[in-house]
Amino acid sequence: MTEQQNIPGQVQPKMPADEHRMDPAPDYTPRHPGVGKLKGKRAIVTGGDSGIGRAVSVLFAREGASVGIIYLDEHKDAEDTLKLIAAEGAEGFSVSADLGRRDEAFRAVGELVGQLGGLDVLVNNASMQFEQTDLRDITEEQLRRTMDSNVMNYFFTTQAALDHLPDGAAIVNTASVNAFKGNDTLVDYATSRGAASAFSRSIAKQLAPRGIRVNAVAPGPVWTPFIPGSLPENKVEDFGSHVPMGRAGQPWEIATSYLFLASDDGNYFTGQTLHPNGGTIVGS
């Protein structure tokens, strides 16, 4: 059982923020020995440098996958993740790209597919959030940045990946509990996560004839660089204590949902959403 960590107040002046600057460090370490659930598979994880993306990348590596990560500009975090993938005995590759631009998404995916030698699993995870307490304070620049990062990103990266994914492949998209319960201070972010859910369900239907399964994971509060990068210090302190389990989740606890959906364990799942959120009851 994971206990609540004492999370001191802290902020970082940029989004995406840096995992290596967080205190305490997020816990990405898988808890069980690998059994080859993804042996021989090639996976791309966007936002794989840190947070949930790092935990997913390390877990996939432990289960036998070669992993390519795409990140924006968090170079040290990306280097650290590649070292963790290598420590699991797997090949890891990285590329920096702004996935909100179609040409960048196609470049990044093409480069990683070339290094991996193919593609079997796509995890769309990279995203951003910015807090505003008044809808009128969400500027056009912020709104477009949120949608480029969280919606256009998923469209472009998936479009690029479909040129390479074989029949029977898997796509897992990150959504959020906020898409289901709403969030009065993260209106544009919650809206974008609702789009991720609708996107997942829609392309699940489109790709079902090819046997490509498309699902989503909708995490609740998780201790990742999102938090010090987007929330004020007083909200970071003891972050996550409001959920029924009384604590924030750790990235490793969320990554297991992605493994289930990416592997044969989730073979009869498509168009579905898993909810690792600490006990918040939402419609699925």
From TrEMBL:
Coiled coil: none annotated. Residues 1-38 are annotated as: Disordered. One of its GO terms (molecular function) is oxidoreductase activity, acting on CH-OH group of donors. Gene3D superfamilies: NAD(P)-binding Rossmann-like Domain. Keywords: Oxidoreductase. This is NAD(P)-dependent dehydrogenase (Short-subunit alcohol dehydrogenase family). Belongs to the short-chain dehydrogenases/reductases (SDR) family.
